[in-house]
Amino acid sequence: MKDLDKKHERFLSELDRRKMKRRKDSDEFKVVEGVIDTSTLKALYKLLGRGTINALYGSISTGKEANVYAGEDVEGTPVAVKIYRISTAETDYMLEYIIGDPRFKRVGRRSRTLIPQWALKEYKNLHRYHEAGVRVPKPLDIQQNVLVMEFIGDVDSGTPARLMKNVEIESPVDTFNEIIDMIQTGYVKAGLVHADLSEYNILWHNGPVVIDVSQAVLKTHDNAKRYMLRDISNITTFFQKLGVEAENPIEIAKEILSSGEE
Question: In a 10 Å sphere around its CB, with 0-12 CB exposed, 13-18 middle and 19+ buried, how is residue 90 labelled?
Answer without folding.
Answer: exposed
